[in-house]
Amino acid sequence: MKVLNNYAGVGGNRKLWEDVEVTAVEIVPEIAAIYQDLFPDDTVIVGDAHQYLLEHYDEFDFIWASPPCPSHSRMRRTFTVTRGQNPAIYPDMRLYQEILFLQGYCKKLFCVENVVAWYDPLIKPQLVGRHYFWANFFITDKDTKSTKIGKLGATQDYWIKRYGVDLSEYDLNGLRRDALYKNMVDPELGKHILNCARGSTVIPLTAFSKSKRMK
What we know:
Layout: E1 2-6, E2 21-26, H1 29-38, E3 43-46, H2 49-56, E4 62-65, H3 74-81, H4 94-105, E5 109-115, E6 126-128, E7 131-135, H5 156-163, H6 177-182, H7 187-197
Parallel strand pairs: 1-2, 1-4, 2-3, 4-5
Antiparallel strand pairs: 5-7, 6-7
């Protein structure tokens, strides 16, 4: 299965994938280097995932995209903006650009992942744990306990045990190590999504609009 892993991060979603040929796109060189070290058989591209999707979407059997989430996050709005710790920012509409683009042009399987937003989503997603998924296949129910974000103030040992990924020896050049862990998709959830996609029939996003598992 030829897979595009867009906005790859350090590859939490990809950790338990099997029998796949993966191309990963990550714009931050230090993060891309960690991904390449963890998944040496994957093709890793340091570049703009938004542009790469536009130019290469039709080359893959399955596309996973996790566009930047801070501008959509309830956590950021509720706990940092309202308390004056961060400024208010425009929601990053590249998220919906990619959903609409894939819905309109992609004939293969795809899912676009993001956090549960502080606003009503403009296009209805499927809801799994703390994630929205805009996918053109049905994602079956899963025990969502493992998909919840880790406890506040968690130590590095907690994250290593939780995800099975040890970032302690990498030079992050000023990047926050805890942020890399918190941005990871739970590997078990990543595996579950891919397994749902395998063998699925492409279904228009509009078919999910009446699902009780939507927000």
